[in-house]
Amino acid sequence: MEKDVILHVERISKHFGGLQIIKDVSLSVRKGERIGIIGPNGAGKTTFFHLLAGDLFPTGGKIYYKGREITNMPDFKKAQEGIVRTFQKNNLLNELTVLDNLLLVLQRKRGMANVWFKPRNARRTPPLFAEAEHLLETWGLKDIANERVKTLSYGEQRQVEILLGIAMEPDVLLLDEPTAGMSQAETTYIVRLLHQLPKDLTVMVIEHDLDVVFGLAERMIVLYDGYIFIDGTPDEVRGDERVNEIYIGKGKTVGA
Amino acid sequence: MNKQLFMGVVAIILLIAVPFFFSLFYLNLLAEILILAIFALSLNVLVGYTGLVSLGHAAFFGIGAYASALLAKEWSPQFLLTLLASILAAAAAAAIIGLFCVKANGFYFLMLTLAFSQMIYSFVHQSTTITGGSNGLSGLPSPMLGPVDLSNPVFLYYSILFMFVIVYIVLGLIVKSPFGHVLIGIRENEMRMKAMGYNTALYKYIAFMIAGAIGGISGALYSSLNGFVSPNDVYWTMSGSVLIMVLIGGAGTMIGPVLGAAFIVVLETIVSSYTTVWTMIIGIIFILFVVFMPQGLVGFARMFQKLAIHRLLVSQKGAKSLVNNEANQ
Amino acid sequence: MDIIAAQLVNGVSYGMLLFVITCGLSLVFGILGVLNLAHGSLYMIGAYVAYTLTTQRFENFWLALIIAPLIVAVLSLIIELILLRPTYHLGHLSQVLLTFGLAYVIHDVTSIIWGSDVLSIPLPPFLSETLHFFHQEFPAYRLFVIVAGVVLASCLWFVQEKTRWGAIIRAGLSDKEMISALGVNIKLVFTVVFLVGGYLAGLGGVIASPILGLYPSMEFQTLILALVVLVVGGLGSIAGTFVASLVVGIVETFGRFLVPELSLFLVFALMAVILISKPNGLLGKKVMKH
Fold it and tell me: Which candidate from B179, B185, B197 shows the least CB-CB separation from A79?
């Protein structure tokens, strides 16, 4: 494997009973690459992320990460190792506050998660809270820190969803439709945030908003019918007639 | 924070003072409440904090009770030894049962815990030689704390009170700690916790063992208090009772299970002196709580508090505006 | 060989009893998604009503067989309308707890009405005989139970496979929106299913209690057994409940015969094994939605 390949997917496939969602996908991702994944609904984009993140295991093929095979590594282990995903539908701890959600991410990162004899509050564990405050400030969520997630607007929840992913300090960040359902203003805001991600962070983004993904990605993958249809630069994909064909009837989606 | 500590200290002082002012009857009642409170607190770790509803918690109560009884009968009635035996036995059982149960969720977890607890019940009920079968074990020797004979109700009460305070403090620490917050996170959204990198199965397993071990403590205390254990202590209706206590008191809080245990025991004592339909009344009350007060007594108290504060603020505002109006005129 | 045959008859008939008792629970759980913990209580009411009908009113077992389940059905209707219909928004778990509270209530109510003595239901002479086949003796009632179980299973299977109501059951829909989308009145479906579940529980009470007896707390013991069968057989299939009933019946009977100290243990061990290795049961059709 090449030296700076961080993620290598080799001929993975995924069946569900008689249905084959992913048929044969291979790709190599270099550290720091920004990859956009597009394709019509049902092409298998989210399933592909599930396979990478460990929610599902491939029925065939292998996945390598930093040189090690991780094909059947469980989801929480992959998250520990640095492969972090955000969910297409907000999947937060709705009854807890934004701060609580964030603290759970941070306490594990700081190795504090198994402390059982000390209360977790601003007085007894200040560095944890300081880091949380800093993150919330940086990403502009300080105002809603103490609101319960379920009281937030959809867009705000989405921001929290992305923040949690970033707070994990991942090596590979899988963003599943980060701007789904957002207004134009919210989308612009998210795009700005995404451009501020660390340069050595490898990012793969599934998106339907083509403006977002074309602005962010240096490499585009078009998934169709469980295969990689095209793997090239944004210009190559934009210019390819066949891409328009497989999108016929879909048109441009929200955010245009 | 300080207010809670203050109230806790007051409560302990009051509880210590009980033997000086109340008769033996109330002492025994309180001892039973404290024991069942420990039992309810242990189940609350699973139900209230980790979100795992178990119908098999009587297994650990029963194992604790029988382990304590058997050790007292066959070896030594030393209280600390029998207590230790119960904790070890219950923890071991939890370690084994937990291995199978934590992989299950929801309905399956409910049924699996029920199945295991009934297995233990069946064994205890049908194995006449070791466990006394359906008659249970009676005539247990009085527990001893060193040279002190704990058959003296006051000493026994203090021992039970001491254990209750220890359990309450330890569990109180756990639920506020980072570890406790992991459990709460699992209750709220296990998939999200896994995405955060938590090995949720392992945390659930640990919670299961903590709950089992402490359940064992309550069983041991129970057998020391009564001098008698029976298969009924392991029957699934016992699991149902403690679940009712947790839910009526308020799951997911520390004081809730204690209130629930107290409420049930006191109600049973009062009601059963007037009528035999105690079970029906508990059933009706439980139904009312599930529908109208799902947060339990704790939730009710909080709501009451909010309402009272709201009324106070409103009346203050009203008073202020009256004063302002008068000042302006 | 005689002994084996006798035990086999016992096991199969016990299995059929379990089937009659459990099929109502399985139906309600499959459609409503609510595990009716008062199912044993409804069974018990059926048994007690049959007792009253056969010893005090009509002194006719067959009449009791017809009337008692109907009475339990009416009771189930009332329960569904008062307790369940207004509370579906609380969620499945809350409703399970409600049925648990209900079981407590019914426990004392029946205790007041019928007392806490051990009772038994007198059988018609025709069924109290011992029949002789193939040089063996078989208690007629046990054969009756086997026949009844098979007939019931056939009826339920027929409804499930050949009728419109059955189509809903087969689809395994406990998704309210889906059922409404099919143009079916969901509230009506739930009420009818619960009513039928109650009827079957009452029927079980009449048929099973001559063998199993009437005694305090019988409803809790019966409920536990029904839960075992439910788990072993899996959800959403009459066939599963039927097969599981036979398996549990035979395991318990032969267990009691061969290793009496462990018979009950074996039954629950079987339950645990199935839950661990085949959570959907022997013939369960779908993964449970929580």
Answer: B197
Contacts of A80 in chain B (CB under 8 A): 197
Q: How far is CA B300 from CA B188, B303, C35, in A?
A: 22, 5, 27
Asked if B311 has any chain A CB less than 8 Å from its own CB, the reply is no
- B195-232 b/e with 16+ CB inside 10 Å = b? bbbbbbbebbbbbbbbbbbbbbbbbbbbbbbbbbbbbe
Same domain, A32 and A154: no
State whether A182 and A255 are in the same domain: yes
pLDDT in tens, B251-298: 999 999 999 999 999 998 988 888 888 899 999 999 999 999 989 999
Identify which of A87, A72, A49, A64 has the alpha carbon closest to the alpha carbon of residue A9.
Answer: A64
Global pTM value? 0.89
Which pLDDT tens digit goes with each residue over C228-283?
A: 999 898 876 788 899 999 999 999 898 888 888 788 898 999 999 988 888 777 77
CATH of the domain at A215: 3.40.50.300
Residues of C in contact with B109 (CB under 8 A): none
At position C48, the amino acid (one-letter code) is Y
| Number of structural domains found in chain A | 2
- From A145, A169, A193, give the residue that closes a domain: A169
Q: Least CB-CB distance to B185: which of A104, A116, A121?
A: A104
Nearest to B62 by CA among B290, B219, B283: B219
Residue A41: which pLDDT band, with cuts at 50, 70 and 90? Answer: confident
Give the pLDDT confidence of A164-174 residue by residue, as tens digits.
999 999 999 99
Tell me, yes or no, if B179 comes closer than 8 A to chain A by beta carbon: yes
| Residues A201 and A215 occupy one common structural domain | yes
Domains of chain C: residue spans and CATH = 2-277 (1.10.3470)
* B 200-239 residues with CB < 8 A to A: 200
Give the closest-approach CA distance of B194 to chain A in angstroms. 5
Chains C and B touch (3+ CB pairs under 8 A): yes
Give B-chain residues touching C264 at CB under 8 angstroms: 118, 122, 125-126
Same domain as A190, residue A206: yes
Quote the tokens at residue B103: 């992989």
ipTM: 0.90
Here the tokens at position B298 are 């704790």
A108 closest CB neighbour out of B174, B180, B197: B197
- Domain holding A225, by residue range, is 1-82+172-256
